[in-house]
């Protein structure tokens, strides 16, 4: 569908002029965080929206990416333009292994086993002190020299463009996959596993493709995050990252590429607004998740694409037709 | 991708020998033999619970038979996964209406072209050329199929808004898109009224004439079955009762007893539930 | 050797608590096929409300227990009627997401209102620990184990020996047929969910008198309960007991002989292995029955 394509392009153009229009380092910082979350939400959406399974352990790949970049730069001295892609690749390898195990399961079993993997990794990160420095974490993940030289606003601008580049690459990869035959096959499996098999789709292999790309993207986000905040500890596996990702994908609209982007930007804004009160924020998030499930199962994109759900005659589970794009 | 061993003219396209399956000790299908020749239209009939859908599920890999084998184009297919069997050209529909209900009619049929538009990872992420051409071809053929089925005006309608009759047609369309060598339809006219069933029969005849050479049909609508079949196989209680031409079957006492006698009351559930 | 006996005793006690904590989860799944990701939060609320009733309002343990469990039953009923009811029949995903949302909401609302500090429910039994040969156990733990056994048996009897239990089993075998024979199925769904909630809350309050209640504990409880239920087979009562004991014992011995920091990993690794090789649980035969 060209509508989604042109809106994506529009967002990218807007993103390119943004840091020159806004010279405020605080706003730029928020934009960088939003960029990281856009990649994370896009990544989770590949699983939730296109594999059709719900992962509660997606922080596993974010965390692996973060630790990989932190170790590669502090121990091996590699520069950021190598560590972030390598973080993505390593997360992708873990994605292949974890996917090969978890994608044999469906429904609640998939949810629980993905959660179990993330917990195992968190415990390993806390206890394998020789590698990860345990609960103390890895401090002093180096900034690129250009950032250090560019001053406060300049440094944020450089980070901003790196984040924008990462977002562009991630969205492009996701877009290519979703529009590809594998993406259509994934939608077919999500819609009707039996029909998909009867037209020759291998549900497991298809899910593996999508799952692996999803892991790679989360790894990028983790690697970049490590450099940006210059510290990585076992908290990267914590559940509040997961809660944020869930709400971004659900609120924006799962199964669309633009939805999670929208969701990420809104949620980062909301998080910043409620920064002082983490509990209140998460309380609100929980309510939003419930409200979305009950009243707007396709999120904002569903509301934008069609008439509001409460006007629809029947409680049809999904009205979005642009989610598959088998065009 | 597909095995290019063209079967010799004498060998049937599909040959099942002594297929059997038990569920929790209950024999659902026992020693079932079936052949479908190239260019042949075979119907499988029998009372509810006779094991027809169970046979479909065994032939297409959704159930693993506990005994017997099936060969398609001279190669053993028992033990293969459903998608692997579909890739060899044996494509089925389901008894319970099964389409991708949130996609439009056109999108459903395009998705059915999966095997014709498969692409490597390199093509997915870097070079689009060849796969773009395949996708364009798939779109054109999808438009043809949608027209052929008489769904042209509802091409952009989401499948969950379709009437029952249109849904059943769409199912056939998705299966046709996969370019089957042998198309297996499981009660495609179930739930249709007489007018719809007649219209469906017409479409089926067109399909057989233009799209697919061989057909295996499970159906209760006798008018439809008698009108299109070259050969009919009757099942009851998980076994083959008799087989023959439509005329032979109509004259058979055994068939009459199976349908009207005590067999008609046999509403076992063994053959159901595979679609879900 | 003496150390091993002490680990064994600790493992059995913890295992009984794990089994108790998982009961509500396995009941709701076994009968309703709903995976309740808010289970741990119901457990946590039982403990926190128990603390409010005893330490703040000054009620005695037994009265407080009855009140808290009743209140949680009402909460469970409302959650089912006003939320789960609306997505019933829409597939697993909706209920999974709904209960994840509910769990995030309950945990953080409690954290916001009650704060992160541990809340100790005064134990009904105090006194010197018992010395059984080389093994040391406190009375309150033994009492809690006894109550656990009673609750497990009670829940089992409700489901298998009472009219409401029969209606429940009928409803979940074939809701349409149950409806036609005059059972008000929507009430049965709500009653089942309420029963599961009450089991979770009673476990929470009981254990809050031994350890303490904490607003943020729900996630861990849910996880452990899932481990127990997956070990024993989803929906199986005997399986939950066996699963609880297996987890309790493995953790006690792992913590005792290998490393205390990595105790939690034992359960998760078991879950991963079991889901891979025996997805219906270790005792698949039992898993068939609710």
From TrEMBL, chain A:
Spans traversing the lipid bilayer: 33-52, 59-78, 84-103, 110-129, 158-178, 199-225, 245-270, 282-305
Keyword Translocase: no
Keyword field contains Transmembrane helix: yes
Domain of life: Bacteria
InterPro entries: ABC_transp_permease (IPR001851), LivM-like (IPR043428)
Compartments where found: Cell membrane
Pfam family, one: BPD_transp_2
Topology with respect to the bilayer: Multi-pass membrane protein
Keywords from the UniProt entry: Cell membrane, Membrane, Transmembrane, Transmembrane helix
A Gene Ontology cellular-component term: plasma membrane
GO MF annotation, one: branched-chain amino acid transmembrane transporter activity
Protein name stated in the entry: Branched-chain amino acid ABC transporter permease
Automatic annotation (TrEMBL), chain B:
Alphabetic keyword roster: ATP-binding, Nucleotide-binding, Transport
Pfam families assigned to the protein according to its UniProt record, in alphabetical order: ABC_tran, BCA_ABC_TP_C
InterPro entries hit by this protein: AAA+_ATPase, ABC_AA/LPS_Transport, ABC_transporter-like_ATP-bd, BCA_ABC_TP_C, P-loop_NTPase
Gene Ontology CC entries for this record: plasma membrane
Residue stretches in coiled coil: none
Residues of the ABC transporter domain: 14-262
Gene Ontology molecular-function annotations: ATP binding; ATP hydrolysis activity
Protein name per the record: Lipopolysaccharide export system ATP-binding protein LptB
Organism: Methylobacterium frigidaeris
Gene name tied to this protein: lptB_10
TrEMBL record, chain C:
Molecular function as annotated in GO: transmembrane transporter activity
Compartments (UniProt record): Cell membrane
UniProt topology in membrane: Multi-pass membrane protein
GO biological process: amino acid transport
Keywords in alphabetical order: Amino-acid transport, Cell membrane, Membrane, Transmembrane, Transmembrane helix, Transport
Transmembrane segments: 12-35, 65-84, 96-115, 142-159, 188-213, 225-247, 254-277
Record's GO cellular component terms: plasma membrane
Source superkingdom: Bacteria
Similarity annotation: Belongs to the binding-protein-dependent transport system permease family. LivHM subfamily.
Protein name according to UniProt: High-affinity branched-chain amino acid transport system permease protein LivH
Organism of provenance: Methylobacterium frigidaeris
Gene expressing this chain: livH_13
